[in-house]
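QA checklist item 7 of 12: single-chain prediction sanity check.
[x] sequence parsed
[x] length recorded as 285
[x] structure emitted
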Amino acid sequence: MPEPESTGKTKPHRSRIGATLKALVRTRVMAGVLVVLPIYVTIFLIKLVFGVMRDSSQWVVLALLEAKWFQKHVWKLDLAEGEELGIDVLLTAYPWLDWFIAILSVLLTILILYAIGVFTANIFGRRLVEMFERFVARVPMVKTVYRSSKQILATLAGGQTQSFQRVALVPFPQEKMRCVGFVTAMFNDSRTGEELAAVFIPTTPNPTTGYLQILKRKDLVELDWSVEEAVQTIMSGGILRPDFVTMVPQKEQAKLPPEIQAKIPEFPGDIPQSPPPAEPHSEQG
């Protein structure tokens, strides 16, 4: 007798179960990645900073541990005349010494940085730093790298200096798009007297590079964000951002309804303009 033909009803049911299981596994895996990845990045950065601080002063600690006077009077080792134990022998005898060297090197680096900070806080230290910066300013390529890295590190370290005076949205790369930028200076057009702004537009996720744009201030969308909030927004690709975001420029905000204008935060103050360059004067003979 011929076998009954299959109705095919179980195949769609199995495919739905398989799709559901795949979606469930994908969702759970992504949830696990979102938990583990920030922890991994944090540990990686901590290890990177710890390694740099350790390597900066580790040679001093190793030289001290290998010194004969230190081994004889501090370690109280019974050494023969002219005998010195190398660091490999010490690590074999004292396995915990590896961690001791790393921690002591980091503490020594922190102490050195603190001493440098104290030294540069007085007049003599500032004079030496100024002499060094004047020397660097004469080297063509080095001066650009030094000034840029110093400004960026000071900003990322939390020192919101007047170099980055305000955060604004800039029409870039076209009129209908906005980029997060930092207003670095305000000045007037030499011919029309119109207020202009110099804006640094950093790239994502690396804010240490970017573009410099000069545009009319009325075309900016000035925000009440701090520099730290803007850097966080740029590095996270917009995932982490402050609550207040608008694309309406200042010149058009006065046309908004009163109930919407009431939600716009007030700025702490106006942006100071850059002083005009001093006019050259001729010496009278």
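[x] summary fact logged: The beta strands are 166-171, 178-188, 195-202, 210-216, 221-223.
[ ] second reviewer sign-off
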